[in-house]
């Protein structure tokens, strides 16, 4: 295999990025949201045209005018939103666009055989080529996507945050597949926020900041994490969690969850949260964490038990009642469940209570903007323009919109599901500080995160969840990550 | 409009990454994204049509009387289109408007309804037509919001059923309106302008205010922009959906009153294919078929463009068939232009 080289310089959203990838390596691209990673990928995939710079492929200068050209050249891209067709079978997906056919008649058997071979190469020979893709897990859909790349004889596979949708076990499996691929001489460009992942899988790293490469082709083994963070953010950042404050003994119980259950998902979940307290739910993906939050919020109708806020029992399955009672939820999928991306910041901030500012039924957008400006000020939301569409903001600032929404609403109970997902390292500390400030102001907060250190660092009290049950409850200072994982493993085994 | 070509995706992705535009660029952008700017293409199209009309038909076209005729011709579709703008902005659709309008015209002109109206007031006929429209919309809304049936299918079912019911009730006969008060009102005018036109104007103003200035409108746009996010923000989305379909049903009821006034007869064939004309006007007017953005001003322009087109063709003695072909071309061109002008920042991921 010859070495693969690519070079960029002076691209529009990218102000000069250099990247070279060698056959058989995993090259990680690291950068904060908005640094230009996606643009870079889209150029390689042929979806964008560079306004300057050069691309070399196997030593020859090339142009990639469109996605088809990229595929023919041997570059395959796995986007965050997997581009598989749910209604088709695995084999049909893999050969979509380059079906094995003679005069329009499909060779189904041959396609199935070829599919089986490809899946075996990826260590997933157990999947049937005739299985409908819609029935597969996110992890297996990724496998299908990779198999499709192989069917095109891809020499370079670009993976855009492939682990974002996977749990720990599936990530391990993904890494196994990636090693499989690199051992066959295929180069991987791996994009991720998770530093420890890059440590595990990467060979070399390119760091992008503000559309320019800060460092290109660093060896993973020789670069320390603080060094990487410094390159990404331009400053030294540690995972600083704000200090906890002693909870006053008389702090009233605001949220009371009593024997809550959702058939087939979780059972008998009971806990209390007092004003000013942060309670963290720790557990693996699929343990029922998010569902517990959604059920408290009324987005799902509890099959048993009930939720009370300030002593008043809520009607199950009624979000509007929960909101009126003073519960706010920042959902896991901010873009699809939290924000209206095309609408300006201020309409997103006031989504839960624009009616409160209205005179009768007539909107008062001036007041909405004014209220939003106050929040922009208080939360240091950027850009500081209430009319900017929410979709143009970075993950961290989108999260701030969600917090602002519940702040202007005067929420007493805040449920935060993965509050720092898609938020880059630099902005995380800010979000943590905000959450603590809200708690200090008397809000009762429940945090769910798949990053256990985050739960431990942020919460006053931690509930460990396994298989839809609360198996342990402890002050956050009296347990560490290993302790949580130990409990989870035991809980799952029992 | 519902299909994002790779091209539009890349266009909308660029500004997310690029440095913030300069102040002057911002101002330009704001003007262009304001009501006038967004509808600039439509205004130009309408002016062009008028120029074509003036050149080809001269004074027969360019006189106040003819312009009023155009608007009167546009008024019934116009009222329906305004209702339609709301459901489409909320990401839905109502295919049943034409049928519901036919049904309402039949029920309101049933002999016993007319007899009762003679005894009391012709407004009873109006109330009956509105009640029929509202009730049909209510049924649509309940099926869509609580039965979780997609709007296309739920309202398609209503399209078929309402037409059938209208045929049953009228026995496929044309029912002549004999209520004098009703007939006199619609023969009359206000400030020299026919009542049909006034109803359209009022509907447009009320619709514009409702959509862009009230909490009802905000909820409508929010639901179309992101249904799940709106639900999770604590807004009673199902109740609002029902209200929306009642609203569009009412607009079909008003349209039924108008057609009764214009034709002085109720029949089950009233309003055939009106749903398509209304949808075309709404979409040409710049309302996104996927929801999340809608403008009443654009819809009114869309309606006027089609009505003017028809008038220009009629003045030049061109056949309906030619007209239909040109209409099709206009729809495609308008939507293509909309995609160029209205790049949608924020849809990139």
Beta content of chain A: 15-25%
Give the number of DSSP strands of chain A. Answer: 22
Task: State the helical fraction of chain A.
Answer: 25-40%
* CATH architecture designation of chain B: Orthogonal Bundle
Any idea of the CATH topology of the largest domain in chain A? Rossmann fold
Task: Name the poorly predicted regions of chain A.
Answer: none
Write the H/E string of chain B, N to C. HHHHHHHHHEHEEHHHHEHHH
Number of helices of chain B: 17
Beta strands of chain B, count: 4
The CATH architecture of the largest domain in chain A can be named as: 3-Layer(aba) Sandwich
Helix count of chain A equals: 18
Structural class of chain B: mainly alpha
Summed up, the domain count of chain B is 1
CATH superfamily membership of the largest domain in chain A: P-loop containing nucleotide triphosphate hydrolases
How would you portray this structure in words?
Chain A is globular and about 70 Å long. Chain A is 36% helix and 21% strand. In chain A, helix 4 (108-121) packs across helix 5 (138-151) and helix 14 (365-379) crosses helix 15 (395-409). Chain A has 2 domains: 6-233, P-loop containing nucleotide triphosphate hydrolases (Rossmann fold, 3-Layer(aba) Sandwich), CATH 3.40.50; 253-493, Rossmann fold. Chain A has 494 residues and is of the alpha/beta class. Chain A has helices at 37-44, 67-73, 90-94, 108-121, 138-151, 168-183, 195-201, 225-233, 289-297, 319-325, 334-338, 345-349, 354-357, 365-379, 395-409, 425-440, 452-458, 481-493; strands at 6-7, 18-19, 26-30, 55-57, 60-62, 75-78, 101-102, 105-106, 156-160, 187-191, 204-209, 212-219, 253-262, 266-274, 278-282, 304-309, 312-313, 327-330, 413-417, 444-448, 461-466, 469-475. Chain B is built from 17 helices and 4 strands. In chain B, helix 6 (97-108) packs parallel to helix 9 (151-170). Chain B has a single domain (65-341), classed as Orthogonal Bundle (ABC transporter involved in vitamin B12 uptake, BtuC), CATH 1.10.3470. In chain B, 74% of the residues lie in helices and 2% in strands. In chain B, the strands form 2 sheets. A two-stranded antiparallel ribbon of chain B has the order 1-4. Chain B has a two-stranded antiparallel sheet with strand order 2-3. Chain B has helices at residues 6-17, 23-33, 35-38, 40-57, 64-89, 97-108, 111-119, 123-145, 151-170, 180-187, 195-213, 215-225, 227-232, 237-263, 274-284, 296-315, 320-341, and strands at residues 175-176, 189-190, 193-194, 265-266. In chain B, strand 2 (189-190) and strand 3 form a beta hairpin. Chains A and B meet through helix 1, helix 10 and helix 11 of A and helix 1, helix 12 and helix 13 of B.
